[in-house]
Amino acid sequence: MAPANGGDVIANDGWGKLARPQALRPLVCLVNEYNSWEGRQLHTPEELAGAIVAEAERLLAGLRPPHGPR
Question: How far apart are the C-alpha atoms of 41 and 70, rounded to whole Å?
């Protein structure tokens, strides 16, 4: 999935349903910037897509695998 499309899914379909967790705010902001005219004036789509991927990688690196059965 393209970075902006994946980001849209999280920003538009997941963020609100998850009660807008602060951990996702930077990713949502980057997606909004990617989708905005103003953001496209300041950065290329490739730069913004790279920032979305980098933020997603940062989030994933912080996830811990679930523990086994208790």
Answer: 52
Contact 63, 24 (CB under 8 A): no
3-state class (DSSP) for residue 55: helix
pTM: 0.82
More confident residue, 63 or 7: 7
Cα–Cα distance, 53 to 30 (Å, whole number): 10
Structural domain spans, the chain: 3-59
> How far is 70 from 51, CA to CA, in rounded Å?
38
Distance, CA of 25 to CA of 32 (rounded, Å): 10
